[in-house]
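Quick start: read one record
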Amino acid sequence: MQLKLKRFRKGKPAHPVIYRTIRPFREFMRIEASGGLVVIVSLLVALIWVNLPIGSTYDLFWGLRFAVSIGSLTIDEPLGFWVNDFLMAIFFFLIGLEIKRELLIGWLCSVERAILPVIAAVGAMIFPAVIYSLFNPPGSPGAIGWAIPMATDIAICLGILNLFGNKIPTPTKVFLTTLAIVDDLAGIMIIAIFYSHGLHIEYLVLGAVFVILLMTLNRLGIRRLVPYLIIGIALWTSLLFGGIHPTIAGVLLAVSIPATTKIDYDEFKQINDQLYGRLEKIVSCAPEDVDTKAFQNTTNTLEQACRDAEAPLQRTEILLTPWVAFLIVPLFVLANAGVRLDLNFFELFSQPVTLGILFGLVIGKPLGVISSIWLVEKTGRVKVSDAFNRDLLVGISLLTGIGFTISLFISGLSFTPGILLESAKAGILIAAIISGVLAVLTLRSAVLKIEDAKEKELTMKLTAHPT
C-alpha cells in the first residue's frame, strides 16, 4: 500500500479537465478495440452454426420463450427479443453515457474540434440513405429500411485500427470515434421517431413520469446507481407497452446519471496527503505492531475519497464498457447474424434491399465523409488540421462502411423474418467484409508512406549532421 501511494503521488498530476477527458476515452478505445475482435468471432460462430446440418436449431434456440411477471404484468417473449430489446437497451445506455461525456468534457463540447467529424458524420448518413432510396424508392417493399446503411460499428472499426497499434495517430482515432458517436446519436433519434408504432398514450405518460423522477434524483444529488436502475427498468417497461422502442430507455436513463464529482481535485489531493501521512505513521513500526484496524479504516477512507473524486457517469461507463463489448454486443451478433450461405444466398444480391445496403455502405459512407470534408475545406470556414493525414482519412472513411451491429439492429426493426430481412443481413455482411478489406489495404499503404517519409527525414538529418 505504501509503495502504491507513493507511485500515485509521484510526478506532476495531469490537468483535471485533460485527465477526465482522456481516461474514459483511453479505456473506451482499449476495450472497444478488443471487443470488435470478439464481435467478429461471434459472427463466425453464427455463420457456422446456421450452416451446419443442425442449422435449424439456430432459429429454434433464439425462439425459445422466456416470461417475466411483475404482479399482473407479464412479458412473454422469445429469447431473441430479450437480447435485441432488453440487453441492447444496456448497449444504448452505454452509448448515451458516451454521448453525454463527449458533450460535457469531450470533443463534442468544443465547436471548433467537433465541427469536422460532425459534418463528416452528417455526410456519411445522407449519402447512404440517398443511395439506398434509389434502389428502394418510397412505396417499395424495402423502402422502410432506408436508415440501415447509415450506421458505423465503432467496435469493429476500432478493432481494425488496433491492428496497426500506435502507427495510427490519436487525432485520427478520435476523429473516427467522434464520427461514430454522432452516427449513434442520429441512429437513436431515427429509431425513436421512425420505428415506433401503435403508440399508447397512457404508458407514454407513465414513461414521462419516470423520466421526471430520474431527473429529480439527479437534481437532488443522488449518486448511488441503484435508484436510477430501478426507475430505468420501469421506464423500459413503459416504453415497451407504449409503442416506442424500449432501447430508447437506455439513452434517457444515461442522460440522468450525474456527471459531476462530489469533491474536486484539490480536495482529493488534500485528503490523499493527510491519509498518506497517517498511513506512514501506522506502518512505520514493526509489522507485528501495526494497528490493522486503523490501517483498514484509513484505506477505506481513501477508497471513499477515490469514489467521491470520480463522477458516477464516468464510473458507470468504465464499469459497463467491458460487459457491453465482450458479452452484450457479441450475443446480439450471435442472435442476428445467422445467414445461410447456400445457393439462395447469391440470389439475394439481385434484391433491391441487398444492393441498396451494399452500395450505401461501401460507396455511400466513404463518399459522404470525403465529400463533406472537401466541402468544408472549399468553404474556408473550417481548416482540416495537418494532424489528419489525407491517406489515413481515406482509410477511415472506408472503415465507416462497416455498419454491422447497428445496421443489423435497424434491419430487425425494419423487416419481419423473411426475404427482406435475409437480404438486409446479406448486404450488411458483404458490405462489412468489402469495407474492412479496402480499409485495411488503404490504411496499410498510408502507414507505410508515413514510415518511409520518417526514414527519409531521419536519413537527411544524419547526412546533414554526421556523428
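The first helix runs from residue 2 to 9.
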